[in-house]
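Hello forum,

I keep getting stuck at the same step: I have a sequence, I want structure tokens, and every attempt I make locally crashes halfway through. Rather than fight my setup again tonight, could one of you with a working pipeline run this one for me? It's a single chain of 427 residues.
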Amino acid sequence: IQPGSSKGDRIDLEVTLPQHSRATSLRGGYLRKCLLFNYDFAERLNPDPNGPHGMLRGLPIVEAEGRLLVGLGDGDELARARRGRIWGGGRCRKSETFSLVMNPDQQFGRVTALIANRINEAFQAGFHDETGAAVAHTGDNINVLLRVPPQYRLNTPRFLRVVRLIPYTTEPKVLDMPINKGEDHRSYRQRIADDLLDPARTVTAALRLEALGSISNSALKKGLKSEHPLVRFCSAEALAYLGDPTCGEELGAAVAHSPVLRAFGLTAMASLDEAICHIQLGKLVTTGEDDETRYGAFRALRALNPRDQLVRGELLNESFWLHRVAPNAPPLVHISSTRRAEIVLFGEEPMLRPPDTGTLGLSAGEFVVTASKDDNLCMISRMPLHGPKVRRTCSLELMKVLHTLAEMGCMYPEAVTLLQQADSGRA
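Reply #2:
Ran it on my machine without issues. Output:
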């Protein structure tokens, strides 16, 4: 379970057979709806040597169900058959909070209460989950518990950095009061606004301005006009998490032209549900100059709005998603190895290509795909260990091959293996 997960969030599951199980394979398996509990050792909870021993069951923390994907990854085939994954097959039943732990000399109830109030003020006190809990709350003198606001759901490390930079007060008379540091008489707010325009200090300054909340928008918008690309990007990124759409064009330009900033820019745009982000991401999916940009924009747009026509796709055999996007983009077949079972096809319709001599032969599990030179069709066969063989012909178009395989019962691991074989065989 990812730290900071909220109630209802999807998580990945792994299912393994016990060491002495008589079953030899999880292929074709389905995990029935069940509850997953946390456990602890009795002796850890009670160190008394004469106390109880063994495992103690805790609370139900995940609801799990789904079809297993078996055979992915490297290693021995028999070992891989005993392990399966269900990407997104679990749903959290409770939120996993972060904790700010007070330093030993600051463990006072008034300090934790002050910090919790300031964090809630900084995030407009507008985020409450279904239980009515705010971003921060405390009930003792040691910890402040944090729930992740929606705009930071894809970037919890940034949320924690921003939280730690929130000043104790937002009173203008304090933030705008001159700080006597030698000959520097600038106020706190003026100092970080000036630091934002300095490329050497802009990263931390942008986070400090973000921690002040929307009152920093004017300073950050000034940073958007800087001649230095890093200053512009840091200003745009902070504006995105503050909910200001003026950042969209700068973030889109950074993703397109700055590989070092690409992941941060895509994450920021996926966190801001504004029209400009939808437009910029859609443009990057279709016109991105390299594979990483196009697929990264696809992922970001799907995180922002999975119902968007460009990224909606179709679920085949309840096993994997197939997407056909950007027909005018450079060709690319992208297979996912984590988080989601999906195949994304970019560019012109990809085709299987039989060799000039001999026969194309691809095999994975029970499935075999064959075609000869000058054939317009391929033969797909399924040869199960028990039961009759099944054969079907279809076009060499990859979309139709994948559809036919799914209709015959092919799962994602077999589809991935067939695609990898076609790629390595230049087919």
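The longest helix spans residues 109-122. If your local run keeps crashing, start a new thread with the error log.
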